[in-house]
Automatic annotation (TrEMBL):
GO terms for molecular function: ATP binding; sequence-specific DNA binding. The keyword Chaperone does not apply. This is Transcriptional regulator of acetoin/glycerol metabolism. CDD domains: AAA, PAS. Residues 317-545 form the Sigma-54 factor interaction domain.
Amino acid sequence: MPVLHESTENNAIIHTSWERSKTFGVDPDKINNELLTEGELRDRTNQFHDFFRTSTKILDRLYSQLKRTSFMILISDVDGYIIRSWGDFPFIEKAKKVWLDVGANWHERIKGTNAIGTALVEKKPVSVIGKQHYCRENHFLTCYASPLYSPKGELLGVLDISGDARNHQVHTLGMVIAAAQACQAHLLLESTQQELTFALQETETVFKGINQPLISVDESGIITRINQAAANLLEQPLERCIGQPLDRWFKESEEILSTCGPALKKITLKPNLKGKKRTWVAQTIQDKRRKKFRVVISTERSRDPFKPKKAENTDQLVYDCPKVKQVLEIVSAVAKTEASILIQGETGSGKEGIARRIHQESGREGPLITVNCAAIPEQLIESELFGYEQGAFTGARKDGQIGKFEAAHGGTLFLDEIGELPLSSQAVLLRVLEEKVVTRIGSLESKPVDVRIVAATNRPLAQEVQKKRFRADLYYRLCEFEISLPPLRERSDLLTLVDFFLKQVAQEIGINQFTLDHLAKDKIQLYHWPGNIRELRQVLRQAAYKTYFVHRSTVISAEELIFPQDRSTNLLLQSKEEEAVKQAIQSAKGNLSKAARMLGISRTTLYKKIAQYPQVKEVLEKIKNM
Ligand SMILES: Nc1ncnc2c1ncn2[C@@H]1O[C@H](COP(=O)(O)OP(=O)(O)OP(=O)(O)O)[C@@H](O)[C@H]1O
């Protein structure tokens, strides 16, 4: 055994290593070598691509400190093969003689006790000086090595400084340890940045397909993320899917991981998941070097499964209310006539849907063309409605443009928000409606048009006429037949619509259904719905998405129903507030916490309201005395 000069721990390490070397059958007097071919060396060096990219500066700095000394720097991989070295003549030549050189294996199995091999086995920094080396030919060396770890904590290899034993300095081991730690820190930073970039890309892909079942898998085929819709299809709780290998469920997982490029690739479930016959597709997210990183798997719906589904089915009119039923009966009756129709109704109450129904039932073969009068600047209204000839005005398109009237020839022109049409344009519109001909701007030629006019407004147009903001003659011309759509709060089918929209969003997400809990139902029925059906749909969609993706539930609670209007009082307009508070207290049978939750206000605010409204106080006292 060698004479030991170093720390007790290092001595113990050397001692154990000598024992191992004996067991490995290493002959201390023989030259043992295991060398890599060029191809093998290239493959092993490639594994260190990221390491060298992030650590070159540190290693160069270390080398500059050791330049022209009898020391060299070496990197070995996890199996002990030296894959890179830095050093100067003449020491490097001496080192080559004992194969302390790129391509040679310095595992203890081959070379007995040595800093590289022993640090790999012990997974600790080690110094091996002179005769501490197991093989006699290496006694002229002094070596210091520290293990290198990947950001995932796996042993990558070893950083080693070797030199002439006569120049042994204790602090060199400290230098190696510090340099190895710096290399690891840089590698970690780089990998965190890369992870972030991928996470962003992954999130983007996942968000695009949020309505669909989605699974994200890392490069070793392990599920890293999965949404509830996918977990349902795999028949496992979501948290039990994470960390599981993909091949547990999918047949071609190996093929996907080895060959899948950015293009979509079909993938099928293993037969043990009966009845889940949907086709799945995989898409790979790659890094700059095209090394696979994540595979996002989804069910196939259309040509591009990551394309979001159309948000709403605008064609379907859902109703179960006598008032709406009556409107639709009238619509059916007048649709086939030539009468121009004015639809009145609050914003979001479904006027456009009615206009579409009129067109569908009119039997007219031309298209339905919609013009939003509020969205077109005053100076462009005429060109929009009547079109223009080539070069008619500065900024006009080169080949001119057809107007909406001409486009709607043989069909229906829907003039939405007609109440917003400026007075100057009202006169022009009236002329066209009377004469039934249009003349493009810049043209002398008039063309007859056969267009059915349907207009809509959320302003009381008759009052606008009285206030001289809307021309009386145009009003009468547009309003040969008037249809009034009831606002949502006057409809008796609120819960039918709620059901419909919840089914719609459940279908989009890929689950069976959403339900509202008791308080949520009460809250929805108490609200005054200023934005009508559009607002109802929005509120429900937001609540459903939050319930599902944040709370992982399908039962929507009152807290998730956030009404855009009156966020501060969160419920009713002043005039209706007293009634709402009263009703909430009645429904909650005097339970004030429950009533406050239903109203979306704090208990303190509710106490203030009770004090403010004598009728509410009375109701509460009555309930208490019951
Ligand atoms: N009966 C219904 N069934 C299902 N969805 C409906 C119904 N009525 C309206 N909607 C939906 O509510 C939303 C608002 O309807 P629409 O755009 O027709 O209202 P609007 O009165 O024309 O609104 P605005 O005054 O803002 O132009 C649309 O998404 C529409 O699909």
